[in-house]
Design brief:
Blueprint: H1 3-13, E1 33-37, H2 41-53, E2 58-62, E3 67-69, H3 74-78, E4 88-90, H4 92-96, E5 101-103, E6 107-111, E7 116-119, E8 124-126, E9 129-132, E10 136-138, H5 148-153, H6 163-174, E11 180-185, H7 195-210, E12 215-220, H8 228-239, E13 248-251, E14 259-263, E15 268-271, E16 274-277, E17 280-283, E18 287-289, H9 291-295, E19 320-322, H10 336-354, E20 363-373, E21 376-387, E22 390-393, E23 398-399, H11 407-428
Parallel strand pairs: 1-2, 1-9, 2-5, 9-19, 11-12, 11-17, 12-13
Antiparallel strand pairs: 3-4, 6-7, 7-8, 10-18, 14-15, 15-16, 20-21, 21-22, 21-23
Length: about 425
């Protein structure tokens, strides 16, 4: 299947069953207890598909919140296209359809020798295999002046959907006419590589309608970004990019885009290119694995969790599998689709290991649709395999081609909406 066929199958029909799902073979082991820590996209997918791979095992999912807000389409929430309720999901189906024991609790202790975790509500829980999908955290202090407090009050990153998403929305709506929206895009690796540029695009589109003299400025740690060719073409077509009247200005690292200091109280960022004062500052900080991964001893010195790429078992702690944004994925981006694909590979590997089998060779996929405007989509489709314990991208991968057809970006925007609906069901329904 080439890239065009892949995207058509996924986007047009929402045919998620065609893609990224291993041929699930059921384990015969009836005694194992599999505990999953973290109920985001990776953890929820693991719980659901583990029931297919190992129908008889006991499955416990531990997640503090009762309603999970996905980052998927949170940029649409920030500009008013959707609400938080539209991207919020419960664990009802996991309980009722897949017989998963869902506990809304926190893990506060971990004993890998005894294969047990300690819960905040009290007591220890043993496991045979542990799946950890902890997500990300933010690195504060690498740039003077940008603190966790500044992110919560003045310069939201809004990179975990929820209260900060709504704060950013309020700030955008309150921006004075002719004001400046300043984004700081993070260095690699980070969650959702095309996400900052989708957000900047949707903010520019919002400004065209509500604040036409406003400007969107992107300070970037990088000189290139995922899907930059189709994004920049979209910016040219929609927002006058590379013209004197451009609504979007992108300042890469080579032109001094890397920030050096922040004055949060005055909404000012001092970068190598100079001082930038704005009415709204969306500062997306550098990232690493969530604190739970550090407390459990699963991280390397780079702040991520090294894993066996064929099974996603931790290279540090046996019988613990780490999936999603926190794991070292090499060429595989830190995306929701990657977490979903990794979860399916991990649960089949666990089922095989419980049956005394050698796990097979995984094939994984990432498909990501982004919006450069509400009716202008761009996409990427990546196929991966494991070579020498590294995840490598196959040549069939690629981003949206730039063509003169006005139908292409319109269709990709339609595909994005279909994809999101079907993808969310695959994880939570």
């Amino acid at each position: 299947m080439n890239r065009r066929e892949l995207l058509k199958a996924l986007g047009a029909a929402g045919a998620l069953s065609l893609l990224g799902q291993p041929a699930i073979a059921a384990t015969r082991n009836k005694r194992a207890h599999i505990v999953i820590v973290g109920g985001g996209i990776g953890g929820a997918t693991a719980a659901k598909y583990l029931r297919f791979a190992a129908p008889a095992v006991k499955i416990t999912l531990i997640e503090p919140v009762k309603r999970f807000v996905t980052c998927l389409r949170s940029n649409d929430v920030a500009v008013g296209h959707m609400t938080l309720d539209d991207i919020t999901f419960t664990y009802d189906a996991l309980r009722s359809k897949y017989k998963v024991n869902v506990l809304h609790d926190r893990v506060i202790g971990f004993d890998p020798d005894k294969k047990a975790i300690q819960l905040d509500a009290g007591g220890n829980m043993g496991y045979d295999k542990l799946i950890v999908s902890p997500g990300i955290d933010f690195i504060f202090g690498d740039v003077e002046g940008y603190t966790r407090e500044a992110a919560e009050t003045t310069m939201p990153h809004a990179w975990k959907a929820g209260p900060q998403t709504l704060l950013l929305k309020r700030q955008l709506e309150a921006m004075p006419q002719g004001g400046t929206f300043l984004m700081v895009a993070p260095p690699n690796p980070f969650r959702c590589p095309p996400g900052p540029y989708e957000r900047a695009s949707l903010v520019a589109e919002w400004c065209q309608k509500h604040n036409p003299r406003a400007k969107v400025v992107i300070l970037d740690h990088k000189d290139a970004f995922t899907k930059d060719v189709p994004f920049k073409k979209a910016w040219e077509r929609l927002y006058g990019f590379n013209t004197p009247d451009s609504m979007i200005e992108w300042i890469p690292a080579a032109r001094g885009g890397k920030p050096k200091r922040v004055d949060a109280a005055n909404r000012t960022v001092i970068a190598e290119a100079g001082t930038f004062k704005a009415d709204v500052v969306n500062y997306i900080a550098p990232q690493r694995a969530a604190p739970l991964a550090f407390r459990m001893g699963l991280t390397n010195r780079d702040g991520w969790c090294p894993v066996n790429r064929r099974t996603f078992e931790s290279e540090i702690v046996r019988d613990v599998h780490v999936i999603g944004d926190a794991c070292v994925g090499d060429s595989m981006p830190k995306s929701g689709y990657s977490a979903n694909s990794q979860a399916k590979v991990a649960v089949q590997a666990i089922a095989d290991l419980l049956d005394g089998k050698t796990p097979g060779e995984p094939s994984m996929i990432n498909v990501c649709y982004s919006l450069a405007g509400q009716d202008y989509g761009v996409s990427i489709a990546d196929i991966f395999k494991v070579v020498d314990n590294r995840i490598v991208k196959l040549p069939a991968s690629g981003v949206s081609p730039v063509t003169d057809s006005p139908a292409q970006p319109l269709l990709e925007a339609v595909y994005q909406r279909n994809w999101h609906r079907t993808f969310a069901n695959d994880c939570f329904a």
